[in-house]
Design a protein that fits this description.
Blueprint lengths: L1 H24 L10 H23 L1 H25 L6 H22 L7
């Protein structure tokens, strides 16, 4: 359960970050002129991250898999974006890579912890 709580805490931090940006700039902010697909992806995380948090506690297996999809897609997208737009990696990107490594390393234990012990 502590693993799920850490996943949720990381996703909550990301949710706050995305929500703060939208609070400041509005739902249809262009993030300084980035491609529309990137705009849509980054904005969608404002809603997908909290959905994953909810699922982690309501339907944990689905929440774990959604967490994995979110962080893999985030690191892949932001790596692509950084390379194609000449953006140097920043602390936020590195924190995503660390979270990805954490999820990959703890995924088997998180899933195992959800199965009832055999009689």
């Amino acid at each position: 359960m502590w693993i799920l709580a850490l996943y949720a805490a990381c996703l909550f931090g990301a949710t706050v970050n995305h929500a703060w940006m939208l609070w400041q700039h509005g739902l249809f902010w262009d993030y300084g002129g980035v491609p529309r697909t990137t705009q849509a992806y980054w904005t969608s995380l404002t809603f997908v991250d909290p959905a994953a948090i909810m699922l982690l506690f309501v339907r944990p297996v689905a929440g774990i898999w959604l967490t994995l999809v979110i962080i893999v897609s985030d690191v892949v997208h932001n790596t692509w974006f950084g390379f194609t737009h000449g953006q140097p990696a920043k602390w936020m990107f590195y924190s995503q890579v660390v979270f990805l490594a954490f999820v990959l390393l703890t995924l088997p234990a998180a899933l195992r912890g959800l199965k009832p012990a055999p009689p």
